Amino acid sequence: MTKKFVGNVVGVSGGNKKQRSDVFEMVFWYLDRYMRRFRSLDIDIELVSEKNLDDDDAHGWADKMGRRKFEIELNKNLKGDDFTTVVFHELCHVEQWAKGKLADLNKKGNIVRWKGHIYENYSYTKQPWERQAYRKQEVALKYWKKYKKSKEKKILTIDVN
Fold first, then answer.
1. Each residue of 88-135: pLDDT tens digit?
2. Which of 22, 33, 93, 151 is the most buried (most CB within 10 A)?
3. What is the structure's pLDDT at 137?
4. Strand partners, 112
5. How far apart are CA 66 and CA 77, in angstroms?
6. How far apart are CA 99 and CA 86, in angstroms?
7. Per CATH, which fold does 9-147 belong to?
């Protein structure tokens, strides 16, 4: 009898080895802290230069590619807390989609369902899902820093090539 693998799958490409390792650790920490019940997510993350980001005005973006499949692009040139908060911001969007709070109704991002309400051509700064992601990135950063200082790390650090 073969056993089926059950667990989240995360792939990180681009950037340097340290960045990839840091992103792996941040993602699995975030999943453990905020999305514990999810065990079948497939998240592909690409670290790219700012000029290669698909969205000219952003430091990162996330997209839902399937029922449990997500893609994230991050600006690899960001440093320190700026880089960390972008990772958490985009993971918050993954969380919103996975929990069914957010849905892109026309695959263009201008007609969105958020917590049962339809938003059409809504100003970026007033989008409630973006406002939540900005708040949560700061909260996650605070807890991440505490985690990094703690002596009891729970997340397996992965050796990245």
1. 999 999 999 999 999 998 877 789 999 999 999 888 889 999 999 999
2. 93
3. 98
4. 104, 119
5. 28
6. 20
7. Collagenase (Catalytic Domain) (3.40.390)
Q: What is the DSSP letter of 3?
A: P
Q: Which residues contact 77 (CB under 8 A, 6 or more apart)?
A: 49, 50
Q: What angle do CA 139, 90, 40 make, to 5 degrees?
A: 105
DSSP per-residue string spanning 70-85: EEEEEETT--HHHHHH
Give 75's strand partners. 48
Q: How far apart are CA 28 and CA 2, in angstroms?
A: 26
d(CA 65, CA 16): 25
Instruction: State pTM to two decimals.
Output: 0.88
In the DSSP assignment, the letter for residue 119 is E
- Give residue limits of the domains in the chain: 9-147
